[in-house]
Protein 1
Amino acid sequence: MKAWLLLFLRASTGALLIIWGLIKARAPETAIHVSDKYYDGLLSAAALQAPLGWAQALLGLLVILGVFRRIVYPLQAIVLVAGALAIWKYLVDPLGLYLLNAETRQVLFFPSTTVAVAALILIAFKEEDALALDRVLARRA
């Protein structure tokens, strides 16, 4: 059961990376708008969108497959945890009670905490991820 749950966790976090990567690569104006609005324009340069987007989509695919996990899982964690930390106000005050207000609050960002923790869980349970492709190939060799 644990192996299947880790597979589903890989699939869902990897899919998120693919979706946002494709948005950056294929709809850079959307990614720039999000960066400007929520991340202080940190990655708003138009020239960055396609390369970062394709790299993020590739990272998501590698996560889903479960290959190069020693490198891929920490990279995924950096992307997802950094993304959550950048919107910390929305995570600490999702209801707009003290840091935000009714106009600026965004409850839909709160699941970013779950996604960030999921990336860390994949690192912590890497050795128990029996359905990762690199583990399957190692068993066959």
Protein 2
Amino acid sequence: MATLKVKIESLEETMAAFADAFRVTDLQDDQVGEYSLSFPSWDLMHKVLAPKRLDIVKAMAGQGPLSIREVARRVNRDFKGVHADVDKLLKSGVIDRAERGGVIFPYDRIHFEFDIDAAA
């Protein structure tokens, strides 16, 4: 089962994690890769993964390639609004274009991993 891990972390933290992963060269065959998407702030994450966009991602999870019209049907929304949200998700790297048309979210699950600090 492929899971996308969504994180809130700085660019420096993201680059350090990438460097650590790059240094690992002795992976076992049965080890599954970790897929992650990082945002620098809660506000940006919430802007990209607003509730209606998150509904789209949940409807696409584990479903393979779908047309935007089919995504709109599954989330019970109009095509124009879903098209705009799909475009934002594509540009943000959350979903991908499918090879034979349509769009795809190539994961079965989403895991959110972040801390929210108390206000100063």
Protein 3
Amino acid sequence: MATLNQLKRTSKRSYRRVGRGQGSKRGKTSGRGGKGQTARAGNKRRPELRDIIKKLPKRRGYGKNRARTVSGATPAPVAVSINRLNQLFDAGTEISLKALQERGIVSARGGAKVKIVAGSEKAKKFTIKNIGISASARAAVEQAGGQIH
């Protein structure tokens, strides 16, 4: 079987002679237009846009660096104030993610994170399990005699 390096050309390569003949369509300026830099042989100019792009500063700003630190796929935590917990739960209740989902504070699907934040009211005596809590809310719950696990 013949390989590519053994193939022979059967016809002449097509090319167009320029600048010859009176009746040809590639005479006089030979398709190069008028005078000047672009009409000369070896005309290779640097692309202007490349020079502009190279002068721009690299890796600064929100859009370029965001992907390294922030994942857009993870949902933001839902803030639940102590005032809301006081309305929905009695004192001595154990508050977990499941309890918040049952009361409709957090949607059951979508793995949302929850964080309890302080409110204007004093907290009741709650037992909080496996939920994020701010420092001021933690102090309010512990002051009321509650526990955080």
